[in-house]
Amino acid sequence: MARKLKGGEVSDSLSKRISQRVEELKKNGIFPTLAIVRLGEKPEDMSYERGAMKRAVQLGITVRQFVFDEKTSQEELLSEIGKLNDDEHIHGVLIFRPLPDHIDDRAVCDALDPQKDVDGITSGSMAGVFMDRDDGFPPCTAEACLELLQHYGYALEGKRIAVIGRSLVIGRPVAMMAMERNATVTICHSRTGDEALADIVGSADIVIAAVGSAGMVSGSILGRDQVIVDVGINVDENGSLCGDVDFKTAEQKAAAITPVPGGVGSVTTAVLMKHVVTAAERSLR
Ligand code: NAP
């Protein structure tokens, strides 16, 4: 049976290191602060926000909430982001997306100073991921996948990695970051085709699934003794949370697998806090 790669253990270990860095910053008179920008009251945004606030309090990080009406104009939102960019007491900014339809998502993302872009949404952060530079920050979930593999001792150098999904939030950045760690990466997407997908996934050492389709990666296409990172968060026909990987059939073949819930998702907010602390440290330079 596969080893379960639990995210809680990873975020606890990350949190210990983050707390020490927060203490150091406070000795220097810097109080790491995250601004959360939310339009409207979407339950999923509010649930993530509560989780982030709880984690921040545990770590001694301040959170300031900036909540606006869903009908807020793009001009007004851009002006608020400009104020956050200029506020030296704010080190990181998290903007909940998707934004309402009347707002140009890219214009808003790129209005944010990449140095405060702790969620990796600006073009500057994306360029940083592609060029392996610390201009901004990688998207938290993509980094969470690699934190998890590193924590459990899975080195990436020389490994074949199949990434399923090519979004800017997970698939592409995680592929690029794994390649920077000397893995050989193949990215699959909705046009890959079933046969090629099965070939690529079946012959990988590590599979990272970030699709958003309940149980679409079944044990039948997996190889033996692989390490499986399941990023998907879906709701199954019984209303329970599940991943993109069919856990029951996958765990029979895999060497190790992340559960959903309790896997990658549990590491994401810890990575967000790590980014806030890094942004605060960079402000000292
Ligand atoms: P997304 O933007 O919808 O991207 C999904 C990707 O999957 C796309 O690239 C799509 O290909 C590909 N895809 C769809 N059907 C496929 C198929 N049959 N075979 C191969 N590839 C296929 O989703 P996302 O934002 O990356 O999120 C992916 C999953 O991660 C979702 O379940 C989401 O809820 C979850 N998530 C988890 C966390 C966390 O903290 N754990 C954070 C964010 C998101 P095309 O590009 O060709 O359309």
Tell me about this structure.
The chain has 285 residues and is of the alpha/beta class. Helix content is 44%, strand content 15%. A six-stranded parallel sheet has the order 1-11-8-7-5-6, with helices on both faces. A three-stranded parallel sheet has the order 3-2-4. Helix 7 links the parallel strand 5 (160-164) and strand 6. Helix 2 (43-59) crosses helix 10, helix 6 crosses helix 7 and helix 6 (140-151) packs across helix 10 (265-283). The model has no long low-confidence stretch (mean pLDDT 97). The site of NADP nicotinamide-adenine-dinucleotide phosphate has 26 residues, from helix 10.
Bound molecules: NADP nicotinamide-adenine-dinucleotide phosphate
Structure annotation, total helices: 10
Q: Main beta sheet: strand number and arrangement? A: 6 strands, parallel
Strand content: 15-25%
Number of strands: 11
Distance between the termini: 48 Å
In the sheet with the most strands, the strands line up as 1-11-8-7-5-6
Global outline:
globular
Helix-strand string: EHEHEHEHHHEHEHEEEEHEH
Cα gyration radius (Å): 19 Å
Low-confidence stretches: none
Question: Helix amount, in percent?
Answer: 40-55%
Helices and strands: which structural class? Answer: alpha/beta
Q: Mean pLDDT across all residues, rounded?
A: 97
Characteristic key phrases:
single chain, 285 residues, alpha/beta, 6-stranded parallel sheet, 3-stranded parallel sheet, 10 helices, 44% helix, binds NADP nicotinamide-adenine-dinucleotide phosphate
